[in-house]
Amino acid sequence: MFNVTVDLERGCVETCIRKFWTRGMLDAFATTLAKAITRVRATGRVPVSLCDYSRTTVQGQEVVAACIDMMKDPAVRSRKVAVCTGSTLPKLQAERANLDHAEFRFFTDKDEARRGCSGKRSRAEVRPRIEAFPHHYLSWASRSPLRRVAFASRSSLRFRSDR
């Protein structure tokens, strides 16, 4: 149901998750992941993670809630987490489960996820992420030095200049 591979030279923990999970599977995964993260930290490196969720299905709410709780534990946390998802529904579920974690980036291509994990940023990631507002409310008004960012709320439109 899962594989965890450790690359000590790069400080990378690669996980591959498959199929539908139960709470017991998630507990076994958390234990294995914590051991892998500990191995990377023992080398003096700060761990980064590449998570391949491309072969998983939409998970039950109990497993999602347990996953959210698992990610609160510092023993399983990484500096960067690149998540590769195969289809839209598991991606949306993974994004929703990790809203509180700015270190997570989501990709549909595994090579792009590897670049995201290694620190090489794709062109889409160069723009700053703004967590306070949903992405569909964000619009880049211009790319000039003033670079105004428009935030649309239900009742008003506010502009902020970078100057």
Description:
The chain is of the alpha/beta class and 163 residues long. It has helices at 23-42, 61-70, 88-97, 110-118, and strands at residues 2-7, 12-19, 48-56, 80-85, 104-107, 138-140, 149-152, 157-160. A five-stranded mixed sheet has the order 1-2-3-4-5, sandwiched between helices. Strands 6-7-8 form a three-stranded antiparallel sheet, with no helix packed on it. It is globular, with a radius of gyration of 18 Å. The N and C termini lie far apart (51 Å).
Please give a quick description of this structure.
This protein has 163 residues and is α/β, with parallel strands linked by helices. It has helices spanning 23-42, 61-70, 88-97, 110-118; strands at 2-7, 12-19, 48-56, 80-85, 104-107, 138-140, 149-152, 157-160. Strand 3 (48-56), helix 2 (61-70) and strand 4 (80-85) form a beta-alpha-beta unit.
Key structural traits:
disordered C terminus, single chain, alpha/beta, 163 residues, 4 helices
Shape: globular
Biggest β-sheet, characterized? 5 strands, mixed
Query: Using only CA atoms, what is the Rg?
Result: 18 Å
Question: What value does the average pLDDT take?
Answer: 76
Please trace the helix and strand order, writing H or E for each element: EEHEHEHEHEEE
Q: How many helices in DSSP terms?
A: 4
What is the number of strand segments?
Answer: 8
- β content, as a range? 25-35%
Give the arrangement of secondary structure elements:
Elements: E1 2-7, E2 12-19, H1 23-42, E3 48-56, H2 61-70, E4 80-85, H3 88-97, E5 104-107, H4 110-118, E6 138-140, E7 149-152, E8 157-160
Parallel strand pairs: 2-3, 3-4, 4-5
Antiparallel strand pairs: 1-2, 6-7, 7-8
